[in-house]
Amino acid sequence: MLNQKIQNPNPDELMIEVDLCYELDPYELKLDEMIEAEPEPEMIEGLPASDALTPADRYLELFEHVQSAKIFPDSKTFPDCAPKMDPLDILIRYRKVRRGRYTS
């Protein structure tokens, strides 16, 4: 049994057809659409739309002053608060108040 010779098949039988046609799986067809899709954040009634900024990026010097003044018992309270108005308006009002303190 071990002494059997392996026979080489005819080379013409091993020819592979180059123009093979494969059909895409339905999941592969949807993959292109799914890559471009990104879930939208869920809107909560009464709150401004969320953004991708961190609280430090959103509130700039206001964030630094609130955190350094230790107004809240821990450092997570202020960053976790949901603003009741547009964060940009909050920052503008803060800057007006600060400017008023230094000019008077």
TrEMBL record:
Record protein name field: Alpha,alpha-trehalase
Domain of life: Bacteria
GO biological process: carbohydrate metabolic process
Listed InterPro entries: 6-hairpin_glycosidase_sf (IPR008928), 6hp_glycosidase-like_sf (IPR012341)
